[in-house]
Write a structure and sequence with these properties.
The protein has about 260 residues and is mostly helical. Helices cover about 65% and strands about 0% of the residues.
Length: about 260
C-alpha cells in the first residue's frame, strides 16, 4: 500500500458525497481539471476495479488497460455518470455499477485502447504492485472488489495520518503506530513489544510509547471516518462502512499487547 493521498480531513462541514460527485459532474469544464480528476479517482480507486476485473477472468495487461479506460470513461463519458443518482447509495456501489455497464460496452482490448486519451492519464504502472493478494485470488469478483475498496480507503487514511505526523513533528508517533499496528495488520509482520519499540526509537518508557500509540490511533480513526464520509450518502452508512472495514481487519488489530 502507498500513503500519498493529501485530501483534507475532519471538520470541513461539507455535505455527503460532495468530494466525489461534484468533481465528476464538473468533468469537461477544462482539460487541466479533467487530468487532475482522472488522476485523483484513478489513484484512489484502481484497486477495487483492478481486483474485480482480474477475478472476472481478465489477464493482467488486459485488466490494466480496462482499468485505465474505465476511469477515463467515467470522468469524460458522462453517460455513465448520468445513470447513477448521487442522492442515493454509496460511491462504492456507483463505481461497481458503472464498471459493469462499461464492461458490457467493451468488445475487445483493442477497441478499448483506442478510446483512451493516453495524455490524460497518470501511469498505471506507477501504482502497482500488480500481484493479487491471496485473499483476492481466492475470492469471487464481488468480494475482490470489496477487498480492494477497503484497501483503498485504508491507503487514504494512512496517508492522512503519516502526513499529519510529519507536519506536526510526530515522526516517532508514526513509527510506533506503523510498527505496532500497520505492519502486523497489513503485512502480517510480528507485532513487537512496547519495550522493543522503546529501545528501537529511544522512547522513555512504555507508558509514553503507549500514549503515542493511542494518539496516533485516534488520528487514524478520524482520518478513516472522513474518508468513508466522502463516499456515502447518509450518516448511518458511515457506521456500516466502518463495520465492514473492521471485519476486513484481523481480530488482533483492534488491540495490542506488550
Amino acid at each position: 500500500m502507498t500513503y500519498r493521498d493529501e485530501t483534507d480531513m475532519g471538520g470541513t462541514g461539507r455535505t455527503f458525497l460532495t468530494t466525489h460527485w461534484s468533481l465528476i459532474e464538473d468533468a469537461g469544464s477544462n482539460e487541466e481539471r479533467n487530468r487532475a480528476l482522472i488522476g485523483l479517482l484513478f489513484e484512489r480507486y484502481w484497486k477495487p476495479v483492478y481486483f474485480y476485473l482480474r477475478r472476472k477472468g481478465h489477464k493482467n495487461d488486459e485488466a490494466k488497460d480496462l482499468t485505465q479506460g474505465f476511469f477515463c470513461e467515467v470522468v469524460l463519458g458522462r453517460n455513465l455518470v448520468q445513470r447513477a443518482d448521487p442522492g442515493r447509495g454509496r460511491f462504492r456501489s456507483f463505481l461497481l455499477y458503472a464498471l459493469d455497464k462499461y464492461l458490457i460496452d467493451q468488445f475487445d482490448k483493442q477497441a478499448a485502447a483506442k478510446r483512451i486519451p493516453r495524455n490524460r492519464l497518470i501511469s498505471i504502472d506507477s501504482l502497482g504492485p500488480w500481484d493479487l493478494p491471496a485473499a483476492v485470488s481466492e475470492s469471487s469478483p464481488g468480494d475482490s472488489y470489496n477487498y480492494g475498496w477497503v484497501a483503498a480507503l485504508l491507503d487514504q487514511a494512512l496517508s492522512h495520518v503519516k502526513a499529519r505526523c510529519d507536519e506536526q513533528g510526530m515522526e516517532v508517533h508514526w513509527k510506533v503506530f506503523y510498527e505496532r499496528i500497520v505492519r502486523p495488520t497489513l503485512e502480517g509482520a510480528e507485532c513487537p513489544s512496547l519495550a522493543d519499540v522503546c529501545e528501537r526509537y529511544g522512547i522513555e518508557g512504555k507508558k509514553k510509547a503507549s500514549n503515542m500509540l493511542v494518539t496516533t490511533k485516534r488520528c487514524f480513526q478520524a482520518a478513516l471516518r472522513e474518508c468513508v464520509r466522502n463516499t456515502v450518502a447518509r450518516e448511518e452508512e458511515i457506521e456500516e462502512e466502518l463495520g465492514e472495514i473492521v471485519c476486513f481487519l484481523p481480530g488482533d488489530a483492534q488491540h495490542s499487547s506488550e
